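User: For a benchmark we're assembling, each entry needs the component sequences followed by a predicted structure for the full assembly. Here are entry 17's components. Please fill in the structure.
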Amino acid sequence: MRQAFAVAAVLCVALTTPRAHAGAEAAEEWLQRMAGALASLNYEGLFTHSTGEQSETMRIIHRVEGGRSQERLVSLDGSGREIVRTPEEIHFYMPDRRVVLVEPRSDDGSLLKALPVPGPQLEALYTLEVRGGQKLLGRAVRALEIRPRDTYRYGYRLWLDEETAMPLRSEVVDGDGKAVETIHFTRLETRGHIPPQRLEPAVDATGFQWIRAGKRAEPMVASGGWRPRRMPPGFRLVGSRMQVMPGVPVPVHHLIFSDGFASVSVFIEPGAAKGPAPSESTRAGSANTFSTQVRGHMITAVGEVPAATVRDIATSLAPVQGEASSAAPATVPRDR
Amino acid sequence: MANFPPVDGSTEPDEPRDDHGRPASGVEQSDLELVRRVQRGERGAFDLLVLRYQHRVIKLVARLLRDPSEAEDVAQEAFVKAYRALGSFRGDSAFYTWLYRIAVNTARNTMASRQRRPLEYEGNLNESEQSAVESRMRHMDTPEATLLSDEIHSTVNRAIGDLPEDLRTAIVLREVEGMSYEEIAEAMECPVGTVRSRIFRAREAIDRSLKPLLD
Amino acid sequence: MKEQIREQMSALLDGELAASEVGLLVRRMERDDELKRAFSNYVLAGEALRSPGGVLASAGFAARVGAAIDSGAPLPAAQPAPERGPLRWKRPLVATAVAAGAALAAVLLVRPEGEDTRLFAERAAAPAQTSISALPVGGSSPTPAQSQRLAGYLVTHGQYATPLGRRNVWSSALATDPGIARVTYESVETP
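Assistant: Structure for entry 17:
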């Protein structure tokens, strides 16, 4: 409660100060409040997840223990898939394939990690605006709009509960202003305590194939021999590691790029198929992926950004040293 | 962090509540039983599910489409899809919840294929907008069909009005209030068997009055 | 006897019929149109009570559904819109020279069924440029192995996204596969 008053006081100051950045600061405050709420509250809810073509009902349960997040996400009326994030691992149950993917948890558990960094860097890429006085599902909400300044990233429309800053509705929006992905809560409860049993999966995984990733990955300092030659504006390399992915036999470089709000992962698998293979673009909701072959490696970029952005990032990677391989497809032009 | 009341209420007014905390209602159990039979090859059981939900699915789809005259075609497609997908229905949600989603997705796909955006969150329609959509739907029909629909409603209303009070109460408590036989028995202070009989006789009376209309 | 069966139908509608009696009743109803008609009227009574003057299915609807199922006809695929103006979506990609500062060509993404293409907005001029100089080969649904691999990437990536981004990405990973649209390009020019 005190927290809410403190924030309200800051907002009052922000609103009465006739500074050009006042609006952006209030919006950034709300953005941080929201991120903090998502990371630190115990909550459980039902939401509708919609892309242009389909919508599904899902349940989410989020609990915090010892400063670490755990959560469970279940598809209720579609695939029956579940993701459970325990303190140590991530389990992805796919009953439609009778498979469970298991990955070690990579974050250090800090709740404040991966929160958007406010400030001029973010403002250079996005305009933020917040409006009050709206209602959603009977509760007072702030409408927070995050509009990208270019088409390399998506925009967001968020309706945040006034009291808790939880997003009751969120839309990922493309360059035409069309919602690419919508999450809309039909039921949401925050509680003091969520028993750990709530995180147990409903799927009976007897007889499933368990596919495990390798042991905990070692973070790397350098980008491990691959460097992006050109990047869409605002994206920087923020992390780099090696990982054994579930189902992939050789260790994979995993590079993480971020513009402070959206992030893109690039996975570099050595020893890709011989001969030229077509590049591929896939989309699932607001997540786009792009795969392409470079110098005998399969490069896959994944991120909550438009398709062309993951394509740009994937195709901009090249090994730091080394000549053009003779096995490279003829259509790849020589380096300039 | 202080508790606050759950953010309740969906945006689609008759979105079936999928509350896994409560035991399944009689109708949900009955649906599951029918689904199991269909999964075992009893085609007839699916006909019953269609009969039970046809009006609701058509009504739902009519609200989502801009052109309500297509509602029956799209609803038919949704039912067929449901039949074909029934193998993958695992029963961890109510059948109608699952069917509801299929109908919504079918309607959206229809809209998308026509390059049109479906009405999002049509649940925000208020009463008068709602009935405007519905009357638009009726007027898309032929004059004969519209007349028939109105006649059906007035026939049913009249038949219900003519019922003895105990039959009328029983069927209203069941159909409008959604109470179980046991709850109705408690409310009307009579045995469950009597409730069952009263509701049956009320329906028979309505069926008799509808027969000449729909033959 | 007839009356007993009809009373069972009424109880079944309310979910109050013993499971053991359901089987026989279903089989009886399957063979008897009169019983089906009466059941249909019982349902009608409830609908009329709940929404007076509301939309109702027309008389032969359930029978039509049954016929459609029995005929095993393929479900109508999403039909393209009838001709109502120039087919502006189906422009092929334009090859552009790779030149610093040149605006990116518009990118076409093709849905798996080949229609409902979407034209991305022209990019703002920006220093980093690549271009695609190939026509899409066509779309298709990913194979199970591919969607599994993709799901793995989505799960891993989700760990590094913001809490909001993670929820979006993981929800998409949970969604049923047809939500994934896939495009294959023949070749990609890399600068």
